[in-house]
Amino acid sequence: MTALxxxxxxxxxxxxxxxxxxxxxxxxxxRTPRRTGVRRHWWFTPWLYLLVPLALLVTFTYLPIGDMIxxxxxxxxxxSPEKNNVGLKNYTELFTRPELFKVFLVSGVYxxxxxxxxxxxxxxxxxxxxxxxxxxxxxxxLFFPYLINGVAIGxxxxxxxxxxxxxxxxxxxxxxDGKFLWIGDPDLVNKSLAGVSVWRYTGLNLVLFLGxxxxxxxxxxxxxxxxxxxxxQQFRHIIAPGIKPVISLSAILAISGSLAVFEIPYIMTGxxxxxxxxxxxxxxxxxxxxxxxxxxxxxxxLLAMILLVTWIQRRLVPEERVELS
Length: 325
What we know:
There is one protein chain. The protein is mainly alpha-helical. The chain contains 15 helices and no strands. Helix 5 packs antiparallel against helix 12 (about 245-260). It is globular, with a radius of gyration of 33 Å. The protein starts with a helix and ends in a 9-residue tail after the last helix.
């Protein structure tokens, strides 16, 4: 009798020993994979994928911004190898000369136009999100201006706004006769150019709002309709809260865009007749008057204002996670 049988006691049937730990059912020993030190080096793998984009971002964004800030403290003319440090002279000149800072009044006109543009896009997006006849056609018509090149838009509207042009002819059809200097009158030029911006960028906001509205669960509309809610009530209690982050994004884009308007007024008027914007003024100072230091200071101020407006908007309207179910 073996020691194992004695421990089991009398009458205990002998049991067959099973396979040893780590052995396969067929009795062969199974090889366990050996741990290597590869896993501890995987932490840098995401940075390998981000290396090229970060290098491009630093090279073409942050380094030029750093150079621009450095130029803003000099009197560099853009040609001479010498850059004399003048301290805060450029910033002092920028804020103490009214003719340099009054261009923000022009930005105010574009800001009002941007608010009109957002309201129109929100209205059309709400209407076209429901079952409307030819809604795909209207979506294409409203979005099409955004696809056109800005230079082409500028030249087209030069003919549209010229005396006895398209706009004057349309006004005569409704009984308004007269020749208006739409881009020659200082009282009308900024309103006319801002109207072109509304026509061009409404489609962009329309697409943003449509995408956000279509992400709202459809059963919420059904429940609201069963409760007797009309379209305005559905917009107020379902659509507006559901697309609040997108409206906030559109507001930031509108404010920054109104401060940095360049393309349309530069092509159509070149900044004449009181239509000069902050960006056009900076370009003229750099390339017409060879004041790269002052132009760089102007660009730094513009960047700081956009960042400040964005920060204020984020503080007043904090980003919230909206969950509709």
